[in-house]
Amino acid sequence: MREISKLFHQLCGKIILLLACLLIELIVLIRKLTTEDTSPITTEQYLKFIEEKNPTICYTKGLRTEHVECRVCLSEFEEGDKVRNLKCKHTFHKDCLDKWLLEYWATCPLCRKKVLPDAVVSKHRQLLNQVDFNGNDEQPPFLLSVLRGDFHGNRNLSSRYS
What predicted TM-score, i.e. pTM, was given to this entire model? Predict the structure, then answer.
């Protein structure tokens, strides 16, 4: 009888621990739903935002630019090239600048002035930094991942760099 009582107490302790974890997960989920939208933005949405803030124009000889070449690819602008003229007055080929803004922080390649707001950049970086979990882009909350047996805070980080 004593062993059954001991087993019952252990089982109750584990159930209480499980319920506490589930309660914390519920709180995290409710908080996530009630806070401001921090969902990541796709690369397509990011490129659309770049286009809105710095529209593409066609290069003409009359366009006043500081340099006659794109300072990313170092090739000269030609009549009809698609370019972006930033607010800092630096001009680049559209594709060169877009690639720069996607791969690096959203700053002018020359003067490092911000091209996009930090919130937009961080939302896009959030998407890029997410680790694929079960075939989709969403990761479970930390406690849920621990309950599933993943005790590492940075899941699959080593696979990203190999």
Answer: 0.56
Q: Is 73 exposed, middle or buried (0-12, 13-18, 19+ CB in 10 A)?
A: middle
Q: What is the pLDDT of residues 53-66, one digit of tens each?
A: 999 999 988 877 77
The CA-based diameter of the chain, rounded to the nearest angstrom, is 95
Question: Whole-angstrom Cα distance, residue 123 to residue 127?
Answer: 7
Residue 78 corresponds to which tokens in the numbers above? Answer: 């030609």
Task: Please tell me the distance from the alpha carbon of residue 150 to that of residue 112, in angstroms, as a whole number.
Answer: 40
Identity of the residue numbered 65: T
Tokens for 126?
Answer: 């959030």
List, in order, residues 6 or more apart from 75 with CB less than 8 Å away: 69, 93
Look up tokens 């087993």; give the residue: 7
CB 91 within 8 A of CB 63: yes
